Amino acid sequence: MIFNAIQFAADAHAGQYRKGTNIPYISHPVNVMKTLCQQGCDEETIAAGILHDVVEDTPVTLEMVEQHFGKRVARLVAGASEQDKITDKHLPEPDWKVRKQRTLHHLEQESDLSVLMISCADKLDNARAILHDYREKGEELWSRFKAGKDEQKWYYSSLAGVLVKRGNEHGNPLLKMALELETTVNQIFLS
């Protein structure tokens, strides 16, 4: 299932790159997969981690994910996705901050442990990439995002807080990842 998910995601994300870089986008889901494997997650959670952006960022639908990988993987992908981006792709997206507030609420109130693991691995890889690029590019980095540095600081600090809180509820390995996310976020914004 994991290797099928890698191929499926590679095909879906073909031609996409990480924001402002020449790095093929597939590197991000593969990094999420690596983190989930290292934390001992089950095969369906790992597959959903690989597929976590296919419904948000490509023409792939949740129905297609379910057809190829089953109901649980589709449910996990949906749980780790921004709902506004997967329910009706033809409607305009709500405001960036509204979407992020909904994500925070979902993680804090509704997400199960597998969704929290996927989301934390996703945000941790994003934060690592931001930290790397910030050290290379400095303040100009923020121009590649829809929201600027202050908004990104609010979002990532809030994410770290919610995920550490949920990590305290569930213990390791979620807590370990959430604390690493918090440390990485602090390195980005408090340096």
Automatic annotation (TrEMBL):
Coiled coil: none annotated. Residues 21-136 form the HD/PDEase domain. One of its GO terms (molecular function) is guanosine-3',5'-bis(diphosphate) 3'-diphosphatase activity. CDD domains: HDc. SUPFAM superfamilies: HD-domain/PDEase-like. InterPro entries: HD/PDEase_dom (IPR003607), MESH1 (IPR052194). PANTHER family: GUANOSINE-3',5'-BIS(DIPHOSPHATE) 3'-PYROPHOSPHOHYDROLASE MESH1. This is Protein containing HD domain.
